[in-house]
Amino acid sequence: MHRIAQLVPFQLKLPAALLPIALLLAACATQAPPSQPIPQVVTPQIGAAEQATLRSLVSLQDRLYRVAAPLLVNNPELCKGNARNLLGFTAKNKYSYSADLADAAQTLFGLDERLQVTGVLAGSGAARAGVRRGDKLIAVEGKPMPEGPDAERQAAIALLPLVGARSSIKLNVLRDGAEVPLNVPLTRACAYSIELGNADNVNAYNDGRRVMITRGMMNFARSDEELAYVLAKEMAHNSLLHATKQNMSGTVGDIIDNLIRIHPDMTAMAGTAGVKPTPQELDAAADTLSLFMLARAGYNIDRAIPFWERLASQYPATVPNSYTAIHPATGYRISVMEKIAADVKAKQAARKPLFP
Predict the structure, then answer these.
(1) Which of 82, 120, 155, 332 has the highest local Cβ count within 10 Å?
(2) Quick check: pTM over 0.85?
């Protein structure tokens, strides 16, 4: 299995307790600077289908991470205890991908046995310290970084006692054939893993610690701003513990585990896949918190209501496995958002803190 989108790079098959420690905000600065591109070499040994699949996944990942980054970094106070110190970059190796894509990852992006930085969060401690996309991780606090198939898990274990006890981490990276020492300040952010769902249904999910946006929803969102509306809403559900309150954490967790696969079992996604419709009060509470999260992250909330109205119109509750099917109270949500949007704008105009 390959986690096709993650803001938790050192996490393959990690126990839940380790996930926040490894959250590094993958690929948030999604395009490598022209002077430090990740090597891309197309060879005939790698099938065109594998290359196309991997390129598509990486493109979707990049967009997802770029949009999620300001929401995660600017809202630790609203994450209700789910904020952590993070490194501010993502590292992967070729084993981060499923066996059928590992060779393509090595060929297209230069990934090998070592963990390699695949994205740096703009404005993070990692960015300020000079971490670059393409850097290969050699050592942390003087100890060699793990390599090979289990490198992500072992790196998370090595970082666990460090991230919780320090304000910065000393890294050594390999760049252009030379070893470069870096002191990376940690970045405070919401510790939610952001996942890409490998499915065309227009939906989004949260299980208390993860947010998943399906490929179908990403294609539906006409702009990064519209995608931010969905991400913020799912983050708000997590912050308000709604999956737990509805006894849905396990069910939604299974859906996320399924849809992060390269080849998910879509027979398990029939109907609403066992997800209970969200009560209007919980949905409205998440909408309220999400509008504040969006404003704090610098997103324009003026077009949020038209987006949700368009989604409900094109994919009403009668469409199986759609967002509106598990969030049916669109009218009630809109009435609440109208009031909250006015409150947010009033606080912005008065330069007051943006808290619900």
Answers:
(1) 120
(2) no
- In order of their start, the domains of the chain are 16-189 (2.30.42.10), 199-204+222-349 (no CATH)
| Whole-angstrom distance, CA of residue 282 vs CA of residue 280 | 5
DSSP-H helix ranges across the chain: 19-22, 48-73, 99-109, 125-129, 151-163, 215-220, 224-239, 242-245, 249-259, 280-296, 304-314, 323-326, 330-349
* Integer Cα distance of 2 and 315 in angstroms: 29
41: number of Cβ within 10 Å: 10
Beta bridge partners of 210: 193
Per-residue pLDDT of the chain (356 residues; tens, 9 = 90+): 333 333 333 332 332 222 222 334 332 322 333 334 443 433 345 577 777 777 788 789 889 988 998 999 899 999 988 888 888 888 888 887 777 677 777 777 778 899 999 888 777 889 899 999 899 999 999 999 999 888 888 888 888 788 777 889 999 999 999 999 999 999 888 989 899 999 999 999 999 999 999 999 999 999 999 999 999 999 999 999 999 999 999 999 999 999 988 788 999 998 889 999 999 999 999 999 999 999 999 999 999 999 999 999 999 999 989 999 999 999 999 999 999 999 999 999 999 999 99
